[in-house]
Amino acid sequence: DTEVTQTPKHLVMGMTNKKSLKCEQHMGHRAMYWYKQKAKKPPELMFVYSYEKLSINESVPSRFSPECPNSSLLNLHLHALQPEDSALYLCASRVRDSEGNEQYFGPGTRLTVT
Amino acid sequence: EDKVVQSPLSLVVHEGDTVTLNCSYEVTNFRSLLWYKQEKKAPTFLFMLTSSGIEKKSGRLSSILDKKELFSILNITATQTGDSAVYLCAGTTGNQFYFGTGTSLTVIP
Description:
The complex is a heterodimer of chains A (114) and B (109). Chain A is mainly β. In chain A, 0% of the residues lie in helices and 61% in strands. Chain A has no helices and 11 strands. In chain A, the strands form 2 sheets. In chain A, strands 2, 4, 5, 6, 9, 10 and 11 form a 7-stranded mixed sheet that branches. Chain A starts with a strand and ends with a strand. With 109 residues, chain B is mainly β. Chain B is built from no helices and 11 strands. Chain B has strands spanning 3-7, 10-14, 19-26, 32-38, 44-49, 56-58, 61-66, 71-76, 85-93, 96-99, 103-108. In chain B, a hairpin with a 5-residue loop joins strand 4 (32-38) and strand 5 (44-49). The A-B interface holds A 2, 31, 33, 41-43, 45, 48, 50, 55-56, 88, 90, 94, 99-108 and B 31-32, 34, 36, 41-45, 48-51, 88, 90, 92, 94-97, 99-102.
């Protein structure tokens, strides 16, 4: 089983709203990721959690706030977003074994900021 | 600076053709190279490659890694319209995944 789930699938929010994106995996992976993807562009790394601790923050604006409540869950809290933040937000988890790293993506949340 | 470069940027072929997609990488402390297929949704994992010269196959898709020359290729034989997608490769090291810009493949019936 290589399933990563994300909710909601679609989200429309105003610039003054507060919302959260949720991600869940039950594969025992200890690293989880948030990516942002704009149309016709590759995924752009935002945050990495490793063993439930934030290990990478790619200079993401503070209006995006990640949270990792436990090893299976990852949230992304959104506040005071701008229209240019509209994108596909992808969660992923990574397994590392003796061969290398495999990373599996969730289906994404398509966010529109109005 | 770590980077991954894919070529060509886009490709249009007819059904039944064979295509080769290229991925070159410069990744410090390189661990593995991943290939993904992305249609109008999230990327789907295809292959992970860590060892040079060992081909990975899945149906009509195959991939190989050359760690000396720092590149990988993805081959698709007997292409079908369902193969139309963007193909992404990523070089990984520890926690980081460096994505190329992708190759957009269109298969015409």
